[in-house]
Amino acid sequence: MAAEQVFKKPEESGRGRFFRAAGVIGVATVASRILGLAREIAFAGIFGANWVTDAFRIAYVIPYLLRRLLGEGAMSAFFVPVFTEQLEQEGRDGAFRFTQTLYTLFLTCVLIVVTLGILAMPAVVAVIAPGFVRQPATFDLTANLARIMLPYMLFMMTSALAMGVLNSFYRFAVPASAPIVMNVFALASLFILVPLFGKTPQEQIYALTVGVLAGGVAQVLIQVPSLRKVGFRFRPRFNFRHPAIKKVGILMVPALFSIGVIRINLLISTATASFVGVGVVSFIMYAERLLQFPMGVFGFSLANALLPRISRHAARGEIDTFKDLVSFALRASLFISLPATAGLIVLGEPLVRVIYERGAFTAADAAATSVILGAFAVGLFAFVGMQIVMPAFYALKLPKEPIRGGVVALVSNLVLTVILALLLKGPGIALAISISTTCTLGYLLHRLRRAVGPIGFRRIAVAGLRFGGASVLLAALLVAARVALERFVPAATLPQAGALLLVVAASLPTYVLFARLLGAAEVGEVINIVLRRK
């Protein structure tokens, strides 16, 4: 009887369980982001922002790009919907046979990509960072680091598939916690291995590649016990004529294109930054790391809790419930992202100073990073919204719509990056990404409405106006708080950090009060859900 309870199909749930699932993922993601931020602080203090850090950042972009194409990004787009459908139609054993077949196929493809990538790495670096061609030392270091880290995508692909299986059974905590292990290994490599790898930065930077690879292995291993509990084992299965593989292929090609466009936009940004000046690539990456905290915690949490549920609703033809959950997730994203935008814009500079300004990371580096952070923050609501809207199309088996959105993103980002980089340099590159993502989100929301009918855009817009008004009021108070910080709090890191924490802690209930005063009904709904009244 107990076994049947463990292995039966997961029951559907409403808004309350969806939001609490997002909360579970959010808590784990917060822990991961805190450790990731600690890693960035240590990295900035040890290495600063220079040609060595630029080389490492670009080298890491390469396996990260392939990871997004063949790992987490692709899995979230096409694996979960097909796995959920198999679970509904063929049962647990049938779904697991399909997963083993898909994993075998993916593993073969990724091994080929890794081998070719190692052999052709100089050419890859020349395409991704053409500005480095004129800097032989930076170019060679980038290629060497990238060759070592490229196998990381093997472990990330495996981890992403494990996450998809567990999320489909509504087991969110362990896969969401896996990145914590990655960051622990990265921190260990900074504090333990860096001194052992030499005395110069260009020698010591190789220590981080060991941390990346070890962390990738650990992310897989931590999920194995949970996979065993739901009955899944990683076993080779070569039945590539499995009917579900064809469904994956139908979704996969458009998914790779649309996800690839997002990554191409990142490459456009890094390639442009490699021409703008020394350290600009690092400034953008440092700022993007801070942006990833709210974007990763909230966007990742909402998207991963949402996808299995809307996929099951779509498979059952329950479109009204599908639309209700998507609408609720979009309103929840506005509730969270708009005040975060206000905070990052107003408090960005003191935040960057407290987090990064020490050791090799100078006051000038902090100032440059904070301006780029503000430009990124402008698009935070769009970054989070995209993580909700894109999976909705794959759940509906409409992968061509994200392709169209990808074209909008590519063209708008390319044009804006060229123009704004010339005018504003590093901040212009970040602002181009924010504006192009906003345009793409608007386009995809329009296409979603055409696909499934009204999803409550008027309600979403009204909620956005109310949350936006509350965020403007909050921003005004934060400006006053920043003036007080600069005038009355000692410049030392500890007092500044303590004061910032107090300001952030006080801003949360203040924002909620403003939102309620402006009539945002979603605030009460979220509070009831958190208190388990719904």
Can you walk through the features of this model?
Helices cover 84% and strands 0% of the residues. With 534 residues, it is mainly α. The chain has one domain. The longest helix is centred in the first third of the chain and has 48 residues, at 72-119. It is globular, with a radius of gyration of 23 Å. It starts with a helix and ends with a helix. Residues 1-13 and 530-534 have low confidence and may be disordered.
Sum this structure up briefly:
By secondary structure, this protein is mainly α. The chain contains 21 helices and no strands. It has one domain (10-530).
Give the C-alpha Rg: 23 Å
How far apart the termini lie comes to: 29 Å
Q: Give the fraction of residues assigned to helices.
A: over 70%
Averaged pLDDT = 81
Number of domains: 1
Largest sheet: none
> Which segments are poorly predicted (pLDDT under 50) over 5 or more consecutive residues?
1-13, 530-534
